Amino acid sequence: NFSYPLDIRRNDEIGQLSESFNLMQNQLKHNDLARKSFISNVSHDFQSPLMNIQGYADLLKADDLPDADRLAYTAIIDQEAKRLSSLTRQLLLLTSLDQGAYPMKAEEFALDEQLKGAVRKYRWRLEEEDINLSYHLAPTRFRGDAELLENVWENLLTNAIKYNKPGGSIEIGLHSDEESVQVSFKDTGVGISEEALGQLFDRFYRGDAARNTDGTGLGLSIVHQVVTLHHGKIDVKSKPGDGSEFIITLPLTDRIRN
Ligand code: ADP
């Protein structure tokens, strides 16, 4: 019968073994806690849109409901259903990335065109929020999983919009050298505190600025996973109040040198 942590103070192999055993035990405890908090976060994130859908669907049943209210309630139901669907999609993607089960593709494509496509997709939001976007994109071929990377640019772009200020701006850059490509997203938004920088890529982490915006706190975890899968790295520079810059560096494979 053992009790943990093992208290074997010896300088030989048995001592080392018991020390690594204790470390493993701690790691398992930590994983278990992380798993429990993950489940409780997911449940909460599913619960609130579901409650809203149920609540407004009930209100819609009233016979004498004015048309304006009917439209407003339907719009809320629609928006909450979309939130659920995006949450499910992000969770499924993260889970399969975590399990190493994602069938990663390696296809060659024009990275500059892909970035332009992401900008086109969110043009309406830029206009709606009065944000000025400019880009300098060097023509660049890249070999990787195009669909996963599209996810990365969309997450970084929508964050740069969401956490910006009205009338603010965004700059996207794409450069490459012999070894790697660099993609940067620079915004003039609320910025990120020193403390928040350390938690940015944690699952479900949402900063203070996120309180009134749509989101799941999963976007940057996905960005991190996808960049890691491509053996790349992420640098974040930020000045609270002034804006942030996310710089993604992806190594070029031997087959592609621009
Ligand atoms: P979400 O946007 O759904 O909250 P993310 O994982 O994409 O989740 O981002 C985590 C948090 O990081 C956000 O809640 C926000 O506080 C902070 N953040 C991300 N991008 C930016 C940015 N460009 N400027 C300021 N804060 C940001």
TrEMBL record:
Membrane disposition: Multi-pass membrane protein
Keyword S-adenosyl-L-methionine recorded: no
Alphabetic keyword roster: ATP-binding, Cell membrane, Kinase, Membrane, Nucleotide-binding, Phosphoprotein, Transferase, Transmembrane, Transmembrane helix, Two-component regulatory system, Virulence
HAMP domain location: 1-33
One Gene Ontology term of the molecular function aspect: kinase activity
The reaction(s) this protein catalyses: ATP + protein L-histidine = ADP + protein N-phospho-L-histidine
Top EC category: transferase
Domain Histidine kinase, chain residue ranges per copy: 41-254
This protein's record includes keyword Disulfide bond: no
Main location: membrane
The protein's Enzyme Commission number: 2.7.13.3
Compartments reported by the entry: Cell membrane
Function: Member of the two-component regulatory system HssS/HssR involved in intracellular heme homeostasis and tempering of staphylococcal virulence. HssS functions as a heme sensor histidine kinase which is autophosphorylated at a histidine residue and transfers its phosphate group to an aspartate residue of HssR. HssR/HssS activates the expression of hrtAB, an efflux pump, in response to extracellular heme, hemin, hemoglobin or blood.
Protein name: Heme sensor protein HssS
Native organism: Planococcus chinensis
Full-protein positions shown: 207 to 464 of 464
